[in-house]
Design goal:
763 residues, eight-stranded parallel β-sheet, six-stranded mixed β-sheet, 33% helix
Amino acid sequence: MNVKSTALALAATLLLAACAPRSDMDRYIDDLMSRMTLEQKIGQLNLHSAPGFVSAARVTEEDENVKLLRAGRLGGLYGTGNLEYIRRMQEIALESGAGIPLITGMDVIHGYQTVFPVPLALSTSWNTELVEQTARIAATEASASGINWVFSPMVDICRDARWGRIVEGGGEDPYLGGELAKAYVRGYQGTDGIYDDHDVMVCVKHYALYGGAEAGRDYNSVFLSRQEALNGYMRPYQQAACAGAASYMSSFNEFEGIPASMNKYLMDDLLRKAWGFGGFIVSDATAIAEEVNHGIGDLQEVSARSLQAGLDMDMNSDGFVGTLQKSLAEGRVTEADIDRACRRILEAKYKLGLFENPFKYLDATRSVKEIYTPEHLAFARKAAQESMVLLKNNGVLPLRKDARIAVVGPLAKDGSAMAGTWSMSDHNDESVTPYEGIAEVAKASYAEGSWLFKDKELEESVRFGLFKIFRPGYTAPAIHTVPQERLIAEAVAKARQADVVVACVGEIANLNGEGASRTDISVPDAQEELLKALKATGKPVVMVLVTGRPLTLGWEDAEMDAILNVWSPGSEGGHAIADVLFGDVNPSAKLTTSFPRNVGQLPLYYNHKNTGRPHPDDEPYRKFVSCYIDEINAPLYPFGYGLSYTTFAYSPITLSAPEMPVDGSVTASVTVTNTGSRAGDEIVQLYIHDVFATSTRPVKELKGFRKVHLDPGASVRVDFTLTKEELSYYNHGLQWVCEPGDFEIMIGPNSRDTDGTVLRVIG
């Protein structure tokens, strides 16, 4: 994909389009805009949250939206699924100004009322059909609640587990991220371009490069070259556009010294001109106002520059609605700039069918029949089953159903931890907990086991900090009322009476997600103290890890008998955990992020470049090569890693031909055999390495994957077709090129354990 040639082709297409007959939508919007006042046009560019919804420091007052609507100064609302409230606001919008209906948005990140595993967990299924179906169910439930626009998918590539929002994305790889992005778009919007009442518009976020925040600190600056951005980060955004994504959300970070919400290269040159995106772009919450903090100018200046750069809608800053009329009078923006943004918003509403039926998404009968249904919950259980990564197993798993099991730990009965961050469900506390799931299957005892953190102030801040900020007079529940020593003693006593211990530890929902960056990504200290006490009993200990990010698990990997990473698994998490622990489901998930040995390795990612002084990842320190004194280079668990209750063997790779013309294709094949005693699923992964190129290339890049099911003793041949598309990259001139030469083709069960052969590409 050559950016320059694509832009030229798009320009020609736009020229032809300008000469083409006007569509019904164009004529409708032409007529509507001819009757709108300037203030009404600017009003369409203004987006507010529903009263009380917290997405930034600014919280909308109860009557503020009504006043704006009556004045024709509001184009959309987000943050509520209250049908009665949305209907009332829609009625006011239709009675006011130009009578234009509202668009209604919501952060539907991993399900709506039925909660699925967090997105990072879903990515470890490597099952795009499953991901698409979770989005389809979320669209059904959201659209039955008056919502027609979802702030999802989040497709930011992240290489640094300190960043809390790694939980919302698809991991560290741009190829897999792109496949997941397309699946989400298909699930939310459908595939025919027509929005029925079960379809919602997606808003791809955060555009762009938000996951590259320096030091893993949220909202921080991003320092990347355009070449590295295009090769390592941008593919998911681009693939979402190819799949027909209707809108994008600009990110908080700067890129090349320009905040993303006013970055013309990102929004206009790349997204619109090079990739052909024709929808609208909304800022993240208060992002325009925050541009002032970047030192770009006052609110009027940054609002004008954001509009000119290609931003269409202002979320919660009131920059557009408050300053654009003045900027127009002073010549800082043109009426054409305002009209262009207004048209894009109106087109979205037209495509949703809101002009034909403003109450299309407000059918109260649907909200009774189509939300939190048994069928949706059953699929949530399946999604969770496929998203749990078995990190270690010395033979203790699967558990016997006649065993006596002590289920301990502060997350063993925490339903909200199962739901995870950014869950908008009214049913979070109903999520099935690990203890509940296990107790349905076997004889189980329970002990809380420990505090979350030894530091009481830190734990209070993590658990209740948001309430203290946004609820005046809020009094947090008491914590640490039982001494840590007593909690551990109770857990140890239960462990001694059991055959096996299941320790549920890790992160609560508030310990990852937005505004939840960490410098220490180990299991919190109080919980680690519990694990050490359990280990000392001599009983087998299975660690059930609840998390939204990779953690440093060096001690746990050495001392625990088994580690099952369940992430935040959603509404049916406890049932799915039991399904996997007892072997009713054979785990198949594989990591989409590298797990570091030490936080000092971050950022850490498998598809890194070589250095002039490379050093084998698994070898100890040696002077004058690229390595650490106190730790090896390799991650604890590599990208693509995950165990099963069975074993698989791979044959050597065969190529359909040893050479490939640049415009040709070659098939790489491998035979996979289930060499164990249980049926299981294996995720077969193909990687390439461009041996010599005009720019440096990563040591390994994912370019294909297949999930296969095999009965014991069965074999299957897995084929991957390679073309120049899989072998191309953006060179130093930002051209999408496949350069002739040798390519290593590698296939294996993860990014570390691969077998390879060489393919020669002939120009």
